[in-house]
Specification:
Blueprint (H helix, E strand, L loop, with lengths): L1 H17 L3 H12 L15 E7 L5 H8 L7 E4 L43 H9 L7 H11 E5 L14 E4 L7 H11 L14 E4 L4 E2 L2 E2 L2 H6 L8 E4 L2 E8 L6 E8 L2 E13 L2 H11 L2 E2 L1 H6 L6 E2 L4 E3 L2 E6 L14 E7 L13 E6 L10 H6 L3 H8 L9 E6 L5 E5 L10 E3 L6 H18 L2 H4 L21 H11 L1 E2 L31 E3 L14 H18 L4
Parallel strand pairs: 1-2, 1-11, 2-8, 3-4, 11-22, 12-13
Antiparallel strand pairs: 5-16, 6-7, 9-10, 10-11, 14-19, 15-18, 15-21, 16-17, 17-18, 19-20
Helix pairs in contact: 1-2, 3-15, 5-15, 12-14
InterPro entries: FAD/NAD-bd_sf, GMC_OxRdtase, GMC_OxRdtase_N, GMC_OxRtase_C
Protein name: Glucose-methanol-choline oxidoreductase N-terminal domain-containing protein
GO molecular function, one term: oxidoreductase activity, acting on CH-OH group of donors
Length: 564
């Protein structure tokens, strides 16, 4: 890293001497280090009409854009509101810190009465989708699409039946492992769990992290699916392009184009076949409502014309909390978001007869007591007063954290319109811990995390739970169920796995927004392809599932237009 910094200053000095443009310097840096190499091509002339328009270059949209342009006669416009990546976004350890930059929408939820009180303002999943009436979405039917994307060439201790090594998306373990990982895995065995492949046949167990990385660097959806095909003549990618409306004929209900803003200029582009909405679990329902698709009362209150009355805006919510006790492709910077290992476990509230966890434990390489500069707690909304009271007194000690993640929350939130201005944020009401059952499950998860950190394997290093009480919970006996309930409601934060806002379901489901082919009910030429279509949240991380949704959706779209 030192030589990279030194080289950077040499380039900067050269820029001053030859009066070069700073943006040219950064482009040279990316090219030499082969990092953040641009996949966004803004040089092509915008056409008046495309066969397909894809909104959003995330895990769903990038896959769809790649797969549809495999057909050489189909033209695809991919519109992405964000900008190109850079060398900072390539560092896995800094993943969480990107939330505080321009790479994140910066959305904030409304203040909640049931959560965040102490903060600043497997398999069974997909079989259940099928049983809900979503034909084609059982585990056996979606597994080929998981495998299609994956390139797991550097993975070890995996179940080969559930992995492939010829896809676009690179998967590997971090290039660094601290000593606490082995302790964590051994503690899991003592609790009766196996050390397993978390993406294999058995969900329950303890394991090292598998992440979307390549040679220790972050492998984003754009790097995996867009960079290899960016020069296809039938693919036009526009970054910094914010879609404000999907154009739909109110009489025929046929989608005919989109409107978007770029460089403060408004554009309208037509579509021949379909618009594929892949803007994410907040922006997809927001765009649908701005375009006249959504709950009638919400649209009418925003003075928007109702084209299709659909019940969009429902979502499961997934919170999590912590129990705290030179980039060369290896080393600590390759740890994705600071997560070194994980475990999928069951609390006493889960069905003991199946392989279906209700709690995840994530082993962190550090803890909040090491956040002396305040960058991480600022992202989580943790006030300085809480840090100073709970964490600062132990800041001189080394620490690690075990995050408890509620996998199958029962609480539900809403995404609503603030008004008809497309540049205004949507109203987000996550309703975390609205159901007391969610708090009870989190308490049991915390107890399991404490038992892991208190095992004989950790005890030899004198690991000690931080017993300084959280503000607002001081009067409750520390370690009791009421204390942990108080702590959960005060300091648990979101993991960012919001889904289900444009629910997939059969025509008989009154809450469904899209059908099992991901077509928006009542509208022609419009599909939704992202995490918002999930009928319930999966008991695991959502990113791989969204890649799968993109792969399956691509085949559904190809099947519809095969002869055109």
């Amino acid at each position: 890293m030192e030589k990279y910094i030194r080289t950077f200053f040499i380039f900067l000095l050269s820029a001053i001497l030859c009066k070069c443009q700073v943006q040219d310097i950064f482009r040279d840096i990316r090219r030499i280090f082969n990092i953040g190499d641009g996949v966004i091509d803004d040089t092509q002339e915008l056409r008046k009409e495309y066969d397909f328009i894809v909104i959003g270059a995330g895990s769903g949209g990038s896959v769809v854009a790649n797969r549809l342009t495999e057909h050489p006669k189909w033209s695809v416009l991919l519109l992405e509101a964000g900008k190109d990546e850079n060398f900072i976004t390539d560092v896995p350890l800094l993943a969480a810190f990107q939330s505080g930059t321009g790479y994140n929408w910066g959305y904030k939820s409304e203040k909640q009465r049931t959560a965040c009180l102490g903060l600043i303002d497997g398999r069974h999943d997909f079989d259940s989708w099928s049983k809900m009436g979503n034909n084609g979405w059982s585990f056996d039917e979606v597994l080929p699409y998981f495998l299609k994307s994956e390139n797991c060439t550097r993975c070890v201790d995996i179940d080969p039946r559930f992995h492939r090594n010829d896809g676009y998306l690179n998967i590997e373990h971090p290039g660094y492992e601290s000593p606490i990982v082995k302790l964590f895995l051994k503690a899991g065995q003592d609790l009766g769990y196996t050390n397993n492949d978390p993406n294999g046949k058995v969900s329950l167990g303890f394991s090292r992290v598998q992440a979307t990385m390549k040679n220790g660097g972050r492998c984003s959806a754009a790097k995996a699916f867009l960079k290899p095909v960016k020069n296809r003549s039938n693919l036009h990618i526009l970054s910094r392009s914010r879609v404000t409306k999907i154009l739909i004929d109110p009489q025929t209900k046929q989608t005919y184009g989109v409107e978007f803003l770029r460089n403060r200029r408004k554009y309208s582009v037509g579509v021949k076949k379909e618009v594929i909405l892949s803007a994410g679990s907040f922006n997809s329902p927001h765009l649908l409502m701005l375009s006249g698709i959504g709950p009638r009362d919400v649209l009418e209150s925003a003075k928007l014309k109702v084209i299709q009355d659909l019940k969009s805006g429902l979502q499961p919510s997934r919170p999590h909390g912590n129990v705290n006790s030179c980039f060369s492709g290896r080393g600590p910077y390759t740890i994705p978001g600071g997560a070194e290992a994980l475990a999928f476990v069951k609390t006493k509230y889960a069905n003991t007869n199946d392989d279906y966890p209700d709690m995840e434990l994530v082993l962190g390489a550090g803890a909040l007591n090491g956040d002396t500069f305040g960058s991480f707690r600022g992202l989580l909304g943790i006030p300085d007063s809480l840090y100073n009271q709970v964490y600062k007194p132990i800041s001189r000690y080394p620490g690690f954290g075990i995050a408890t993640v509620l996998l199958r929350p029962k609480s539900r939130g809403r995404v609503l319109l603030k008004d008809s201005n497309p540049l205004h944020w949507p109203i987000i009401r996550p309703n975390y811990f609205e159901k007391d059952e969610d708090v009870a499950t989190m308490i049991e998860g915390i107890k399991i995390a404490i038992s892991v950190a208190s095992s004989t394997h950790f005890r030899r290093y004198n690991t000690t739970l931080n017993t300084i009480p959280f503000p607002g919970c001081e009067s409750i006996p520390f370690g009791s169920d009421p204390y942990w309930a108080c702590a959960v409601r005060h300091v648990a934060t979101t993991l960012g796995h919001q889904v289900g806002t444009c629910k997939m379901g059969p025509v008989s489901d009154p809450d469904a927004v899209v059908d099992p082919e991901l077509k928006v009910y009542g509208i022609q030429g419009l599909r939704v392809v992202d995490g918002s279509i999930m009928p319930n949240i999966v008991a695991g991380h959502t990113n791989a599932v969204i890649f799968m949704i993109g792969e399956k959706a691509s085949d559904l779209i190809k099947s519809t237009w095969r002869d055109s």
